[in-house]
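hey so i finally got around to running the thing on that chain from the lab meeting. sorry it took forever, my laptop kept dying and i had to restart like 3 times. anyway pasting the input first so we r on the same page abt which one it is
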Amino acid sequence: MKTGQEFIKHELDEAIAIQQAIVEAEQRLARKHPVKEAQRLIERAHKQDSKQLQTLQEIGKRFGASGKQEEVSEAMTQLMEETVSGAGEAESEAYEAHAVLVTLKRKQADAGDAMVKIARAVKDDEMKAAAKELYDTSRRSAQELAESLSKMAVQIATA
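ok and heres what got predicted. didnt touch it at all, straight out
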């Protein structure tokens, strides 16, 4: 069982790996998504998420974290890659990739919240600020994308 600094490194590795998957997925999905509103949301999120990735990587360096994939991030990244690769084939495939992106964002918001509490406990103000930003933007972006996904579901179901 990982504890102390080893656990912090693990959490940062996971956060970096998930953020890398989000950034890559957004880049690819924004080009393939059939719904223009969703494309715009994803493009806007991509800019923020790219900056957050850089911040996570900088903080991760202090703890020896570089985005090493472990079970959870590896499985989620693989699912994201599979769904995004088929996103251009049919609207329902883009819907699936969009749904997985929402899930990754929600996972990242949860990780951000935990990292805020960890940073507070170890008195690391830089990590706390970055984690708070990660939590806030991931949560907000997940909600916006989920609302867009719901609209898309109605569109597909009533076609």
